[in-house]
Structure formats: C-alpha cells, structure tokens
What we know:
It is globular and about 45 Å long. It has 13 helices and no strands. It has helices at 2-16, 21-26, 31-53, 61-84, 86-108, 116-134, 144-159, 163-167, 172-193, 203-227, 229-236, 239-250, 257-278. α3 (31-53) crosses α4 (61-84), α3 packs across α10 and α6 (116-134) runs antiparallel to α13. By secondary structure, it is mostly helical.
Amino acid sequence: MENLGFLLALAAALAWGTYMVPFKMSKAKNLAFYQLLIGVGILVSGIIISLFFHFPFNLNPYGLFSGFLWALASSIFLTALSNLGLSKAAPIASALVIISTFLWGILVFGEIPSGWVVGFIGILIIILGVIFVSTTGNTQSVNIRKGLLAAVSAGLIWGSQIAPLKIGNIDIQNAFFPICLGIFLTGICLAAVKKVEFTKEAPSAALISGVIWNIGNLVSLISLGLIGLSKTFPISQSANLVAVLWGVFYFKEITRPKHKIQILMGAAILLIGIIVLGMA
C-alpha cells in the first residue's frame, strides 16, 4: 500500500503542476474573478466526485478551514504567477510547501521522528534548488520582489492546508466535500472584498483549472491516508518540475540557453531533494 501512496502522490504532482496552465494560456488579468471561477470548477467537480464515491455532504469545520487556506494561498499565487511566470513561481512556492509540511509532520504530528537527519538533508537540497531557480535572470518577470513575496507566502499557507485535517483526525470521505465548499465560499468572499467585476474573461479556462486541481486533491488525500503528511505533500510537490517544463518549453518564459540550463538544474535539484525527503 505504501507504493500506491507514492504513486498517488506523484499523480497529484502531475495534476497540480498542470492546473495553472489554462490560466497562462488564457492570459486573464482579472485574478480575483479567475480565482472565483476556479472555486466553481472545484465545487462542481467535488459534487460529482462525492456522488460517485459516496462521500458524505457535510460542513465539517476542519475541512472548511482547510479549503479556506487553499483558496487564500491560490489567490496569492496568482499574483506570483503574473509577476514571475510559471517556471519561477511554481518551484519557489513548492519548496515552501515542502518545508512547511515536513515541519508540521515531524514537529507537530511526530510522523518520522527517526528520520530527522535524512529529512533535513532533503530540506537543504530543496533550498539549494530554490536558490538556483529564484536567481535565474532573463525571465518574463514584471515585479520580482512582489512576485517572490507572493510565492513564499502562498507556499507557507499551502503547506499548512492539510494540518487542520490531521488535527481534527478527519478521514478522506468526510474531508473531501467541505474542502471543495470552503474553497468556493472563500472565492466568493475574496471577490466581494475586492469588489471584483464579473466579466466573460476566460471562464472555461478557470473551470478546467478547478477540475484538474480537484483530481490532484482527491488522489493526494488518498495518499495522505497511506503514507502520511510528511511524505505525501513533499512528494506531490514534484509538481514544480511539471510546471517548470510547461513554463520553459511551452510558454517560452526563459529565452537564453544559459538560463534554461540553470532553471532546469534548479528543478532537478529540487526533485533530488524531494526524493531524499521521501526516504526519511
């Protein structure tokens, strides 16, 4: 079952490394509205998945709060994406997710007390990879400082998203729907606070983003039950490698060969760090 847990974590990585691709393709500017529509896609797909797997429709507060954290981080990450590009924003945010979830796992939940040394070696390798990626020049950066702050903030919040579920000891069946609902309701609140304008900009792209993310959410929750928080989310954050490949080869965010090599090396170092962390 542990092998299945690792495979599902990698499947989550594929989905999470791809779900922002429709956003990049749409070139949407109305970020709050796009986030709201992502929430709609997540809620609709969540209802369908819950009906198919017979998950209960409930208002579990731990699940709702987990959804709130994800939606908040996602709205912040859109700012990072707009300012840094996919190939830089995704690795930085992913690294902070990895560090945050690892520390939650070992310091709060005591999941791998015997693997501290290997775990922290993995963390150091991941930090090295982030340095490689974040110092790459000649990208389509708009506001580097703003983008870096947004990527770091989003990563830290995302890394804490599953903690409420662990604290409340909520299983997959009872967590899935309230997470989706929490994301949707948070999107509405953020849209109201920002007084977002409802436009026809990229609705299908946002809905597709939501569905892709929710597939990753489902398999990650199953993986969580099999191999634990401190391994599921660090492994699933190999999504950054998927995102980097999209950014470099499809969206052409890196133009100079030298910088392409540097950012790919950084992504490879991150992946090595994730593997080491998974061995902890």
